[in-house]
């Protein structure tokens, strides 16, 4: 996920991202910037309100579960171009209904932030790899809760059993 060579910024320009740890850090900064920009986008907020409309008043766990379910199940997972790291804007991901883990996590954090949640990203290594996956997280009470977007059966709070390295990037 985070090992490619290029990504796009909010204006759609192609940016070169270094490989390795520097590339992971740069990609996370781009994702954080996208959430900060798009959490106030009307399309993102309307979608978040639509997705949480069935939740009881102040059911924050239910709101997060509804948003996670949408990003996990209604947005198709598709890999990046071979050898090229791309990050879509949340609006692009909503329109395309497809993206990789960083696109889905960026959309999910923008949706959650648009209705008042503090959010962050958690880049992890799985199966002994360095930083190969990213998850959205939201503040729930005094802690943070994982919102996995790739694993179909992953409920709110699910953590990969084979996670190794961890890097956090706060959006708010």
What features would you describe in this structure?
The protein has 172 residues and is of the alpha+beta class. It has one domain (6-170): C8orf32 fold (Roll), CATH 3.10.620. It contains five helices and eight strands, in the order ββαααβαβαββββ. The strands form three sheets. Strands 7-6-5-8 form a four-stranded antiparallel β-sheet, with helices on one face. Strands 1-2 form a two-stranded antiparallel sheet. Strands 3-4 form a two-stranded parallel sheet. α1 packs parallel to α5 (101-114), α2 packs across α5 and α3 packs antiparallel against α5. The chain starts with 5 loop residues before the first strand and ends with a strand. Mean pLDDT is 88; it is low at 1-15.
Element layout with pairings:
Elements: E1 6-8, E2 14-16, H1 20-38, H2 42-52, H3 60-73, E3 76-77, H4 90-96, E4 98-99, H5 101-114, E5 119-126, E6 133-140, E7 143-147, E8 163-170
Parallel strand pairs: 3-4
Antiparallel strand pairs: 1-2, 5-6, 5-8, 6-7
Helix pairs in contact: 1-5, 2-5, 3-5, 4-5
